[in-house]
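> example.struct
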């Protein structure tokens, strides 16, 4: 399943920051990604209360029908302490394990998190992209960094998410009058395409169906 770089698992915060800096050079931000992907995967992780036990879930949807065509979940322990900006290192080993268990290969990964909209411009979606070799982006429920103006109330309205003068993401209203989501490129896909795909995956609810399905599976696996 994996066609990207070999993962490396740091033991300290300093090593983790250095690894993010090293891998950032491998990002392919010049690629648009597939125009009409058939299979798109949602990735999410649920945590047990008061411990480091977690469940990582990957659910593959057919974009035409939004039906689930494959799924995998892995229950384990977080692989790294909680450190702001280094959250990906807690979840990646289990997520990569779950991806390896799929029988239907996704063309795009959509994670519950961020990509370039990150203090070091290397969030979970970036990390997933370079390690898997797949187009990846994040859809966050709340912003991690950046400034923005609220988008219009209509479905599909957007505004730029800006960090240090650069557009690192897009604030997208997926449903009229509902709080927006925060779309951020990870690797090998353009922001325009990631935004359009997020909207297509969100016909009825605020969050895309990929995220909703992965969230359900991770919680069920943890229980």
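> example.seq
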């Amino acid at each position: 399943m994996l066609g990207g770089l070999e993962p490396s698992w740091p033991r300290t915060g300093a090593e983790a920051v250095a690894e993010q800096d090293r891998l950032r050079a491998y990002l392919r931000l010049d690629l648009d990604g597939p125009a009409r992907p058939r299979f798109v995967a949602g990735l999410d992780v649920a945590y047990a209360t008061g411990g480091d036990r977690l469940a990582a879930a990957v659910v593959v949807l057919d974009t035409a029908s939004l039906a689930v065509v494959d799924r995998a979940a892995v229950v384990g322990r977080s692989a790294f302490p909680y450190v702001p900006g280094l959250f990906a290192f807690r979840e990646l080993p289990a997520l990569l394990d779950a991806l390896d268990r799929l029988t239907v290969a996704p063309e795009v990964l959509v994670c519950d998190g961020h990509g370039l909209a990150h203090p070091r411009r290397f969030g979970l979606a970036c990390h997933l992209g370079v390690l898997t070799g797949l187009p990846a982006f994040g859809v966050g429920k709340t912003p991690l960094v950046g400034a923005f103006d609220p988008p219009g109330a209509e479905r599909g309205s957007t505004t730029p998410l800006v960090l240090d003068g650069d557009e690192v993401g897009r604030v997208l209203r997926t449903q009229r009058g509902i709080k927006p989501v925060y779309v951020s490129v990870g690797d090998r896909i353009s922001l325009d395409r990631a935004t359009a795909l997020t909207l297509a995956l969100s016909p009825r609810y605020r969050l895309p169906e990929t995220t909703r399905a992965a969230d359900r599976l991770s919680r069920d696996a943890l229980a």
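> remarks
Helices lie at 13-24, 88-100, 124-132, 191-200, 209-222.
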